Structure formats: C-alpha cells, structure tokens
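Data availability excerpt. The first of two example chains:
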Amino acid sequence: MEGLKLYTPADVMALTSTREGETKLGQMVQTISALEDLGRCTAPYVVLGIPEDYGIRANYGIAGAATAWDAALKVLLNLQSNLFLSGTEILLLGHFEINAPLEDDLPSLFIKVEEIDNMVFPVMQQIFAAGKVPIVIGGGHNNAYPIIKGLSLALEKAVDVVNIDAHADLRSTNGRHSGNAFSYALKDGYLKSYGVYGLQENYNNATVLKQIETSSNISCIYFDELVKTKDHTMIWSDFNKPFDYRMGLEIDLDCIQHVLASAGTPSGFSLNDMRRIVLNTKKNLAYLHLCEGAAQMSDGRQDPNTAKTIAYLATDFIKAQLNT
C-alpha cells in the first residue's frame, strides 16, 4: 500500500554497521510508532524520504532521483556519533512508499504527482504543527509544493522560501511536475515570497525570466554573477535577510557541480560552497529539502558520492541550526 512507512529501531539497526569502541548515528537516532507521537519526541529534527522521480519524468527529465534516499540514509546512519552531533537530535521518521502509475504517459504522470502531493502535505503539516524541523530527502523538486503547503497550513499563513537552484521551477501550471512546484505554491496562496539563489542564465526560458523581473514577491541572484566573486557568503547572507526568519530552504542538488542528477552540471556551486552556505545561515529555518540527486540514473550512470553529499548537507544543517 502507498503511504508513509514509519521506521522501527530494527529497521534502523539493519542499516547501521556497528563497530566496537565507536557509536554511530544509527545507534542514537529516535523513532516513533505513530505520527501522534511527534509532539512527545524530544528530537527537534525529523528526517524523512520521498523516493520517487515521477515529477522529473513528467518534466521530460531522466529518472533516477528515486534512488537517492536509500543510499543517503545508509551513509547518514553510519556517520560517527560524537561531540559535534550525537544523533539524539534526529527523529528518523521513515519514507513514503509510492507505487508506479499504471501508464507512463504525461497525463498519467501528472495525476501521479498530484497523488503524491496529497499523500505528502498532510504528513508535513503534522510535523510542522508539532514544532519539528523536517529534513526531506527526495525525490524530485515537485515535492517542494506539498512541503510548502504543509508548512503554510500548519502556520495558517503564506510562507517564505529560498531555493538554491540553477532553475526557477516556475513553469506553467498545466500539469504537476518537477518544474512548477513554486508556480503552484504561488498560485494557491501558500508561498508569499520566493527567492532563487544561483539561477543560471542559460537554463531559464524568457517567460520565466520575465515573471521574475515583473513580480514583486520573486527575487533572484544569478550564478553567472556569483562566478565573478571568490567568496559569496556575504552575498548569500544579504540575499536571505529580507525573508522571514523561519523561511524554508530548498537545495536542488543539480546546482552543485558534478552531482549525479537529471540536469547535472559541470558549472555550479562546489560542495564546499554549498556547505559554507548552509553552515553560515543564521536563521532558525523551517525546513531543509534536498532533492533531484541520484545514486543511479535510469541510463546506467552511478555515483556513490551523491549519498555522501546529501549526508554532509543534512548534518551541516542540523549543526548550524543547533548553534543559531
């Protein structure tokens, strides 16, 4: 059956390699047996996965993002528990189990993405309502929409989100896919202010660029401008300053150079650039969404470092937030 699979301690330990004299995060993370227990759990950060790539397929992309969750989770659980991060701060919730649509044509994929939206947003709403900060590992960027919707409904107001991405994902609202999550969030009144950091001039069409230029609630900084400076930490800080202190943070992994993704790039942020951004974000963020990366693409390409990239960014996020 489709839906959220909650992890048990046995599930976690099956993925954790123990070693005498060491303690791994997997030995320390918390689990719950029902969503109703969210409020009683002491861990402030909730990690969960949405392993699917139907939104990417519906956007004419190459499948593979569904493979990121399992690979990243295994790396994350086998990191060391130490004075920098013990693991007790993390509630490992589980992942969404998503069945394939009966047909692989565009209309069927659009319908499937809407079904995923309706599966994900109520869970996100419960997580936010419990006062937790989710770290969502995808999956396609289509899942930004149900995350934003869940946050907005929990707070009973439209919310601010900054997306670090080469693409604005503001395509037309004529069928749900990975390229229009923010279009739908704006149209449906869940997204108040939207910022895109690292937008690439070559990969956004004229209609999208015109929308950004003429919209008072959309702002961006182009990666092509950032290339001209060595250290853009201050630029990042200045860019996110006008947004709500509890803004959501989206990171599309295809904006990091050489990360395996449907729209991977040789020219983008380095992993250390992205880590620097996350570690220097001085706001209590509402959530982190890491999406579009893949451990294996449907065309056969593989890269085990995608999982490590996700684990670095997830743990950097928690460490930075604990010290904010």
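And the second chain:
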Amino acid sequence: MLDLRAQFATIADEVRSALEEVLASQSFVLGPQVAGLERELAHYSERRFGVGVASGTDALILSLRACGVGPGDEVIVPAFTFVATAGAVSALGAQPVFADCDARTLTIDPRSVEAVVTSRTSAVIAVHLFGAAADLNALGEVSTQHGLALIEDNAQGLGGTYRGRKLGSIGIVGATSFYPTKNLGGCGDGGMVLTDSEEIAERLAILRNHGQAGGQTGRYVSTEAGWNSRLDELQAAVLRVKLRRLDGWLAARGALAARYNARFEKLDGICPVEAPAECRHAYHLYTVRVPGDGPSNPAARRDHVRRRLAQQEITTGVYYPVPLHLQPLYASLGGKLGDLPVAERAAQEVLSLPLYPEMSVEQLDRVADAVADALRR
C-alpha cells in the first residue's frame, strides 16, 4: 500500500541531523521542536494555534473535552470511519450517535446528522474520509442551528482543502494524526489539535499535561483531571523535516490518483469514490468501489478482485469492512443491519489500492492492469 523506505531514502540525512540535534540537546518533552512544529503546522493549516499530543486518538479525545463534552452527552459521528472516531467519544463517557454517509463521497451526510440531533447532542465530528472533505458548509449550518461544536477529524486529510480553505481550519478545532502511514507521518504515534481559539488552545495544553498549566508557576498544581499526552521532541523533529515536503508529496499523490482515474474511467464494474468538486483531495488513500453481483453476497466481486491482486503480490486494503453501528463494541446501542444503508453498502464495496508519492507510473499501471484483468474473470 505504501513504501516508507522509499520516502526515508529521500530525507534520510535531514532526519538524522534533526534527531542528532535533539539528542545533543537532551530535551525530549515539550521542548523547542514541539513548539516549532506547533507554530509551523498551525501556519500551514491556516490556524492560530497548534497543540501537540501523543496520538491522533488523543487529539480527538482532548478536542472533545476542551469543547465541553462529557458524560451524558451525545456526539454525532459517521458510521463509516475508523473506530477511533467513536472511541474518543466513549472515552469521555459520552455516547456516539451514528449518522449515515453521502452516497457519492462516503463522508458524513448532513441530512442524516440533522435527523439524529437531540437535546443531549453537544458536538458533531466531520471525518475527511480518505483525504476528501466532508460537506463542511452544510454541517456548519446544522451545527450553528442546534448550537453544536463542529470538530474536524482530519487524520486523513492534512493538506487538503474545502472551497479554498485548508481542512482542519473550519470547525472549532481540527484534530490530526501523525501515525507513520499518514501523509505527514512520524516514526511512531503522535497527533495535534489546531484551533483559532486561544481559550481552547490553553485548555488543551493543560489537559495534555496532567491538568497542569505548565511553566514554573503551574508545575505540580493540577486544576482538573488531565492526561499524559505530550508529543515528544524526537517525533516533532522528524515531522518538521517532513512538513517541508508535504505539498510536493500531495502533488505526487494527486497526479497518481488522476492516472488511476483515467485508467478506470471506461472500465466496467469499478468506480473511484468521488470527492466534492470544490475540494482538493489529499489522497491519503485511493479508494474505489466494486459493486457486488447481488444482495446474497454483496462483497463477492470486491473480494474476488482483492484475491486476484494478492496472487500477484499486490497489497490492497478494505477501509472499513464493518460500519460502526454494527461493531460488537457498540452492540448495546441497538444498531442493526438496514439502519444506515449507504454505510453498509460502502463496507461491502470499497477497495483501497496502493498509492504513495514515490510510486512509479509503471507500478501504478501494473496495479491498474491487474484490476482490469480481475474484473474480466
């Protein structure tokens, strides 16, 4: 699906130099590298503040907490996303409420969101799925109408845009992940919350550090229960090197995705997941849909293509095979098959193909040829 060794080969000297600088300083936690990355990524993302944390999941948990979400609240999340989106809600004692996805883009459907708002709803999480923007204008209208916090889960969309604005810059906060496979990935876990609110940024800095304000006056004095969720200096140093390359990597991803699209344009039995016309896709994943042959086994054709590619040593992924409302983790909420039909159908049809900036045209054509051959058999 990706080749991190190929990426490292292009930046190895810079990364080693950055790591050696940290080792020489012996400053490992909340030092100048983290502060520098917070400034640089906030500027890149068109935000005033960035707060580095230990993971993308923590970025969501702390974002929700800083926006006032707690036990008894409801937070609307898409059913078609990674479990961490809903898990962050559950971690605070709140309840995730699942909305269906748009049939074209597979991002959260604002109409489905509005249909499940209740008096207990406090926030909506918009996931920029595969790197494509959710419908932030419509979601913003619903959020404003009902007094909800709009939180962007931008783990997959860093560098993408929506109507000319960077993803992660539109909701009250934007949470991102630096997991190694992400478009801006570290050498381990890491995450960041981006916001224009000074108040929220200050609270996030307290929450990530055991509820302590920091500095000499705040040491060992906790104002509220918090976490140990601090982005470390080594990760920040690596990410600062990579951030300088991000736009170039995104351009390469976009060019490769365009070639995939051209290869599949007239191929029966497959269609790329669409992105809104007004957004720049970050292409964290290049995902197609392979419709099934019938209701008895809707995933059969997709799975056949996947097996055929595996026989040729071509790796693929299914993101995501089980919608959240049907996950065993959330069985107690009473979700059942048929509740969210678009998400359920997507789970049976999606297939993600290899895509990474260093991928050659010859490699891409080999994948496309294998897909075409599998669909003919």
